[in-house]
Amino acid sequence: MIPFIAGNWKMHMTNEEGVALARRVRDLVGENRDVEIVIAPPFTSLSDVKRAIEGSTIRLAAQNVFWEREGAFTGEISPPMLKAIGCEYVIVGHSERRRIFGESDEDVNRKLIATLKEGMRPILCVGETIEERRAGKTLEVVRRQVDKGLQGIHGREIKDVIIAYEPVWAIGTGETATPEQAEEVHCSIKEWLFEGFGFEEAKDCRVIYGGSVKPENIDALMAESNIDGALVGGASLKAESFARIVNFRHTKT
Ligand code: PEP
Questions:
Q1: What's the CATH code of the domain at 155?
Q2: Would you state the pLDDT for residue 65?
Q3: Lower Cβ count inside 10 Å, N or C end of the chain?
Q4: For the chain, first and last CA: distance in Å?
Q5: Are β-strands 206-210 and 121-126 bridged in parallel, bridged antiparallel, or unpaired?
């Protein structure tokens, strides 16, 4: 199972800026085969960024999707549209979508299923708020999001899902979960997956960490045995920082 590092550009970068960033990332890490590298630009630059990374090992993700294939859904983007321009991954259930746009676990599940059905791989984001952590509800909340997010998927599909544990209090705040805090939750997620889908089916499902990941903390996070990669927001907007994260030092025992 190779590590998975994804950059979520969020609502940053015009098309021109995005293409320049993608080219720079490509120059720095575009031949790396030891890590699965994914970038998720805004919808407006997906096509041009795809062209900029063509021929490299970098893969393309969308930051969101709607679950219907086509129809009267003004402003939405469907799975076939993303597939057609070369997206291989889709982020679903990011905490900003849940919190700002009111996405429910059921919405996230529909998006995840629609993504898989189209032959793309969902990156399912889960994570507790600071209030939930302080109330000792971290595992309860994350378990609900994992269970509901994955509802209805078949055992053989779980290897195509990436689960991103992103504590809401660590996203964009500069505050990172300690490697031990992250490892505890990752370990539980893997146990639930093994229980629900069986070890053989679930062993290749990667559980990655997100929340203020930067060059300074990636090595310690990746040293934990159940952290299989990272979802990187802010630090993915600078090619050098993202490249340093991709080139994390391998110290896993
Ligand atoms: C994210 O957008 O998923 C994220 C983790 O952001 P940041 O790295 O900026 O905290």
A1: 3.20.20.70
A2: 98
A3: C
A4: 15
A5: unpaired
* Single pTM value for the model: 0.97
Domain with 80 in it: 4-13+61-246
- Provide the domain count of the chain: 1
Domain-located, residue 22: no
Pocket of ligand 1 (CB under 6 A): 8, 10, 166, 171-172, 210-213, 231-235
The number of the ligand 1 atom at minimal distance from the alpha carbon of 235 is 8
Find all residues with CB under 8 Å of 128, minimum gap 6, and list them: 137, 138, 141, 142, 167, 168, 169
Using one digit for the tens of pLDDT, what is the confidence trace for 127-149? Answer: 999 999 999 999 999 999 999 99
Asked if residue 111 is part of any domain, the answer here is: yes
Look at ligand 1, atom 8, and give the residue with the nearest C-alpha: 233
134-139-142-146 Cα dihedral, nearest 10 degrees: 180
Rg of the chain over all Cα atoms, to the nearest angstrom: 17
- The catalytically annotated residue of 103, 166, 183, 224 is 166
